[in-house]
Amino acid sequence: MQKVIMITLAALVIGLSGAVYYLLNDSSSTSNDLATLEDRVLHTEPMVISIQNRSHLQVSLAIETDSKKSKSELRNAYPLIENKMIHSLSALEKQDIQNENGIELIEKTIIASISPLLPTGEVKKVYVTGKVLQ
User: Fold this and answer.
1) What Rg do the C-alpha atoms of the chain give, in angstroms?
2) What is the DSSP letter of 118?
3) Coiled-coil segments, which residues (predicted)?
4) Burial class of residue 117 in the structure, from the number of CB atoms within 10 Å of its CB (0-12 exposed, 13-18 middle, 19+ buried)
5) How far apart, in whole angstroms, are the C-alpha atoms of residue 119 and residue 13?
6) Nearest in space to 118 (alpha carbons), one of 43, 48, 44, 63
7) How many CA atoms lie within 13 A of 68 on its CB side?
8) Per residue in 98-125, pLDDT tens?
9) What's the rounded Cα separation, in Å, for the pair 59 and 111?
């Protein structure tokens, strides 16, 4: 009986130590992922864009690239990014932005318009960080 208790306790200790190791390593990799994410994300200034039907869209974005170099290329081309955003978003209509897929539409529209600006890298994702529609 004592042998069964000892084996059970040993298995429990090994299992708990494995779980603790996994949790500690998992949280550190998450913090590393977040640190590298910030190295690859360009935050835009809030922009007010006139869209169809005499409406206005104010939008702020976080543009995720595939590398620090790509982020630097986008930062250097920021006036072109603003221009592409104005051209591509001004063609949208208020009801398209207001529906349930409106934010996704904005994100896809921006990706399609600014991806060609990167000569070597790529835009992985665009996140809408602020949106006001009037």
Assistant:
1) 23
2) -
3) none
4) middle
5) 54
6) 63
7) 3
8) 988 999 999 999 999 999 988 888 999 9
9) 14
CA distances from 52 to 27, 57, 58, 92, 95 (A): 45, 10, 14, 6, 10
Identify which has the larger pLDDT, 110 or 14. Answer: 110
CA 94, CA 99: separation in Å to the nearest integer?
Answer: 9
pLDDT tens for 71-87 read 999 999 999 989 999 99
pLDDT for residue 53: 86
Q: Percent helix, strand, coil in the chain (nearest 5)?
A: 65, 20, 15
Give pLDDT tens digits for 15-63. 666 665 666 665 444 444 656 888 899 999 999 999 988 999 999 999 9
Structure-token pair, residue 111: 């990706």
**Measured in Å, how far apart are the chain's first and last C-alpha atoms?**
75
Q: Residue 41: which of 61, 70, 59, 63 has the closest Cα?
A: 63
Q: Which amino acid is at 129?
A: T
